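Example 3.2
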Amino acid sequence: MYVSIVAWDLSRSAQTVDSLREYLRDYAVDAYSVLDGMRLKLWFANPDRQVWGAIYLWDSAAHMDGPARVSRAVELIGYPPTSVGVFELEAVAEGRSAYEALAGLGRAMSGNI
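Structure, written as tokens:
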């Protein structure tokens, strides 16, 4: 398995963390939820620093072209990610959580967490 991490410094973009939350609600979460070979995608943000990005968990490197088929982020933000990293997965630990499922969590989806 592979992990990829992408991040944008939004300081040069007309988009903000708040405006990109609409993109998640209206399009991205559903579009990414059907990608073959993508086990998980987590979007993250720091509104104070205007940083926006995502962490992906892929079944194999062969599947990592999935975002190119569905992403609108570069179009919306106006430029490619300012930071990109690809890593081989070394280990996984799943802890005990108060949340039964991850789907539907996050500020963009529910306004909290």
